[in-house]
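Internal ticket #5521
Category: modeling
Description: The requester needs a full-assembly model to guide mutagenesis choices. All entity lines are attached below as received. Residue total reported by intake: 808.
Assigned to: D.W.
Attached entities:
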Amino acid sequence: MIKKIAIICIALFGVLLSVPTLVPSSTKYFPSWIKPIPLGLDLKGGAQLLLEVDTNVMLKEKNVQLYDEVRSALIDRNKGVIRFAELRNTNDGVSLNIRDDGMVSKAKGRLRSVLGNNVDIESSGKQITISYTAHAREEMISDAMTRSIEIVRRRIDALGTKEPSIQSQGGKYILVQLPGVDNPEHIKELIGQTAKMTFHLVNENVTRDQLDSNRAPSGTQFLPMMDNPAQMVPVYSHVEVSGDSLKNSEASFDQNNMPVVTTEFDAAGARRFAKLTTEHVNERFAIVLDGKVLSAPNIREPIPGGRGQISGGFTLQQAKDLAVLLRSGALPAPLTVIEERTVGAGLGADTIATGKVGSAVGVLFVLAFMLLLYGLFGLIADIVLIVNLLMIVGVSALFGATLTLPGIAGIVLTLGMAVDANILPFERIRDEVKAGTPTLRAVDYGFTRSTKTVLDSELTNLICALILFQFGAGPIRGFAVTLSIGVMTTLFTCLMLTRLIVDWYMNGKSKKIGYIRNKNK
Amino acid sequence: MKLHFMKYRKLSYWVSGICVLLSILSIAIKGFNYGIDFSGGISMEVTPVVADYTIDKMRHDLEAFKPELQAVDNNSILLRVGLPKGSTDEQLNTRVAEIKNILGDRVEYSQVQVVGPKIGGELIRGGILAILVSFVLMSVYIWIQYRGGYAVGSFVSLVLDLILMFGFFSIVGLEFNQTAIAVILMGVGYSINDKVVNYDRIDENIKKYHKMPMSDVIDLSVNEMLYRTIMTSVSTILAMVGIYVFGGQMLQDFAIAMTFSIVMGTLTSIYISNVILYHFNLRETDY
């Protein structure tokens, strides 16, 4: 009896879960964890972007940092200079030669103590190679992923997009979903920029000749102007203040009513900026964004408050975008949009409307067919089938599994197998009755014998679904999730619920015609 | 009524063999009508909102991109731009921006899909790997539950199903995209369900009729299950008919391909996966 009540309760609960999906206006009467099933962007409209995080660029930068660290560790005057030659970046780290054989182990000890356990230090003869450990590299990549996602989220939030979903996918991809967005060009532009901002001094000693022949003296780089890439500015490579120290930035207008971005440094940044502007009055400094010079103003007087203003011949939109970029921070690694899928809201709505009608008619056909084939048993099968479909919808909604077009394919497959799971015992029963078995026993035998069949075929499909989920991506996963849920609900409804209803019906009937004694034999 | 499937065993093999050959030939020669999911590129469905912006004008405006333009119903235009060999993701993104710039406010975008050069191949490789691994594990499960012969039988017919479904997409020229993958997966799932159900009955009958020759046991079992097999297919196809007739243009190709998968899964269950069991000695216990 307890089992029967449990079955009924689970079925009712599953059906209840589907109510917000079927009648969206009823959502407000349910607790917050019972929601309508989220629709995939292919069904409701919106933009989806797949971004690739270029971790190679980031690792290369880390290698350059490693170069600096190794260099300063070995020339540390306090600990004693260790002489070396041929310090250079390799593919995955740094290599150098120690001048004096006897110093190799000392150098290794020094490097280990300065660089910590994140690096492998190996030597053969005078040569020492240093590279990040596989573990450290993985950490850097996963850290870069986390930060990238955070920054992408900030940038998208700043644009006021509704309910964006931003998640990592497959180790180096970020999947951005923007419901209701028809044209994501602006967003693509915003998240495609690294937005690394640095402040440098301008090297005024560079001659016209050097500039024209593109021969930068060491420690100096020639960078193009943002609004006029033909014009190169010679800047010292050394970063005086970096954009990381920015506390806030806003778009506004200068005294000539031109759009500018006002920035505010945090305390440390403000001190460095004040020092820079105090020591270099009447020199120029360059504001560099992603390798391009935004502007290179002259320092007329010390700027102590940590507030600055960046002009660069912006339009208002550009100034606003730059402010957003600076506020949300620089990406640790460049991002590339490698896939874009946009479904216009109109088309999405059409798809849903016609898809709903089509699916409903399809299900009605199946229900009518079962009724036609098996009469009363068909009616029972229909009830169970409806409960099954509602439970799929309800359970998917509970787990927040998104319904996509491939998901519908999964539901159709479930539907087919669920029908099968009913036809199987019914046919058995028919055969048995034909062979002269009393109805009650035939029903019992039919269900018992088909249980194994249904179980085997459903479990085989579950195996398929789990593998597809594990190895597949995108649409394959959507299919696998729906199919797995479908297998569970089908097993429950077809093996338990059908049996329950049939038993009730048969019991009632057998009491009427006095079959009960026959059963007890 | 009793049908003699075993008698036409050789014919079944020949017909399947020819179908496989046709599929492979079509895949090799004609190939697939790859959607940009696999080939990479740009695909846009746009609806002009300016009255006199015709497909010819659009073709002229976008000349530089060598687009494929095609009018689809309700006034929209399907615009496809391929991916030149060796192009990068950045170039592709620039192209999208340029095209949108040229079309400007004269059109509304119903659908835009841009797939970079790397991602397409990744998806198809991952998909096929996933399908094959699932075949192996499903066969292992059948092996454990029944016998090795059944496992081999189901594996062979699953591979057959897969080739025929790929062949169907190639011969008919339906767009091969992410949805196609879902349809093929659905076909595989349906097919394995059918096979397990039939095997279950064969296994039962083998135990029941000790002396009956193998070919008779198979014939008997298939016949016993025939009504069920057909009814299950018919009802699943009925659902597809509903979707085809009322589900709108986007779901129509989907419904056609699904119907094919169901019919094919049913036929290979009856004519191949059952019949092939003849070659395995399923009465021996030492499998």
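Resolution: model delivered.
Comment from assignee: Confidence is low (pLDDT under 50) at residues 513-521 of chain A.
Ticket closed.
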